[in-house]
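Dear colleague,

As promised, here are the two records you asked about, laid out in our usual form so they can be pasted straight into your sheet.

NAME FIELD: protein one
SEQUENCE, THEN STRUCTURE:
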Amino acid sequence: MVSGDNTALIQLQDLDRDGERETAVTFFRVSEAEKPLKIYFFTRTAEDTYTVSAMVEGNGTAIYRVDYVDLNGSGCKEVVVSWQMSTGVYLLGAYSLEEAMVRSLQYAASAPAGSASAQGLPDREALRATEWMTTVYDNYALYDLDQDTRTELAVVRVDKAGTNSAVDLYGWRDGSFMVRASAPLSMGISSVEKNGVETNFLKEDGDVPVRALYISSELADGHHVVDVVAYQDGNLKNLSLDETGVSREMLDRYVDLEPTDVNGDGVLELPTPVPLPNGGDTSASDFWLIDWSQYSSTGKKMKVCTTYHNVADGWYLIVPEEWKDQITLRRRDSIGQRSVIFYHLEGEGEEPTPFLVIYKFTSQFDRADASNRFILREEEGAVYAAAVYDSGWELGMSDADLQTAFHLIQSSWSD
């Protein structure tokens, strides 16, 4: 009956945000009911017992995800539920428990001793939560996008015809929960990635960071795009759309690379693959550098850094700008050892000169610090090491710089 995120069969929640998890939440299916999927809320009493205090109910085959968040700034949390209607089809609802919980307390206080109500069992209508909204969706995120201290609900809708995909921002205004703003997404979107809505910031010079949504999708032609959406002057604005209605942030290779804070400044960067010169080696066409850029609130795109991403071996290296157009790469693998060799390009017709090798050892780990190698990173089942060669070219990085510039790819990325 339950699947997906935050759907353990019994949960303890702090719905009034007083620091105590006083509410037990549990899930039921009542097959013969008009709305068979039930979420019941039980509140702990002064006698340290639990009495039923509210109920949310819906249709579908399963409860896919549940979130608890304050949507109207009252100090109490509302409930956001994703109902799975069928395979790949989901309905999103937002519900207020406050009135139902007040009614249940009134029932318990006024009911004669020994009655059903005194045992915490008011009638179903009194328990039913207030429904604020429901909508079909493809993905969503909860985030205080406009920075008014209240959480908004950003709902992504994919138009299967590929022309009218959009993100709608639901939020509290004038005493009700409503669509406050909408923005178009890239033309031609066929699907949004499962974890494709990320909340983060834009790069700003001021003291107050501007918040944004980074929405990763797949186009019908197989390309991947990222739409960058911000809330400005009461409206949602897609900062990344070009004149054709498609995001400028399009990938046709390295499509597993997500918006990532590569340089650790707290703002997401977006990847742009750049081909390496082959230096006479045709296998070099398999190697690309990645330029990473950030967006400002005006839609200006600013390059931040460049990396070499070795997705197969699970690491990346932030490389100096001076390396651009100066290097090429080759692979050399053997049993228990995978290596990438960095070469400096020499003059026309001359063989490139190796200046750096980065290794991944998956066995015989003592090889990692043999000869002129030094260890970059160790983890269970793998040791990463490097060796610098005297090539006559100044690479501009010390051993310590290389260790700082070397990173493991996060587990959300895949080869």
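NAME FIELD: protein two
SEQUENCE, THEN STRUCTURE:
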Amino acid sequence: MRADARRNYERLITTARTAFMEHGTGASLDDIAKRAGVGSGTLYRHFPTRDALLHAVLRDRIDALLAHADELLAEPAPAPVPEAAPDPEAEALDAEAALGRWLRTYLTGAATPRGTATVIIEAMSAEWAHTGLGAAAAAICDALGRLLDRAQRAGAIRPEVGPRDLLRITNAIGVAAERTSDPAAYSDRMLALLFDGLRTG
């Protein structure tokens, strides 16, 4: 990519990030191009669809979310007391806590720009499979699946719960939270209720 094209690309992403934060994911693409100081044709050459632009804007956040899942899965278990038997209850609590922390982090990201949770729900469908956002949704679902599997193997979460269903429910919380005066508090309250239904005991 030429230097001037690279500058336009980066300026469009920066401008789109601001516009999406101000107006949600439905912000006008023509206005984004105008604010970035380029023509609409330049925007569409770099980003043929709104979803391609949104994926570029969200890429860093998605990468951080996936890395967070890896970090949680790699956290060492508490050092056992010498001669003590493994503590299944402690393992279950740790696995549930890791899953809850990741879902809270996810909802924090899904809350901004407004409309992100709805986009991810749509991107989980088969017709999005070959798009950037579709691949991102699949990667998010895979990361959630690994955390969920750990919690289920530890006996913390009911075994019939699947990652796609859990991701859809979590996104539904995100969509509803957008319409409240305190999205973070609402999300925390709904996640607490959700986990009451997910636990085995």
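A couple of things worth noting about protein two: The radius of gyration is 20 Å. The chain has a mean pLDDT of 90.

Best,
R.
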